[in-house]
Amino acid sequence: MSQIQRQPVSSSDIAGIGYDVATQTLEIEFHATGVYRYFSVPVEIATTIQSTPSPGKYFLQKIKGKFAWEKASS
Questions:
Q1: Could you read off the pLDDT of 43-67 as tens digits, one per residue?
Q2: Range of the domain at 32
Q3: d(Cα 64, Cα 55) in Å, to the nearest integer?
Q4: Considering the domain boundaries, does residue 23 fall inside one?
Q5: 73: which strand partners?
Q6: Which has the closest alpha carbon to 58: 67, 66, 50, 49?
């Protein structure tokens, strides 16, 4: 998979978020646990988590447990 460019966000849990439109892959870098990729994520969800005032809360409500994921290798 090609490198997804992540943008920093203001969050105590999340360091950065990136999205690949072509593959619908959302990449989230957590401060504590590293980078995870979530698959088949609609663009609306990816756009919202990048702009919401509380990305960590949005992640828990709309992403966690709802999409296939993998931990990215470092």
A1: 999 999 999 999 999 999 999 999 9
A2: 7-71
A3: 12
A4: yes
A5: none
A6: 49
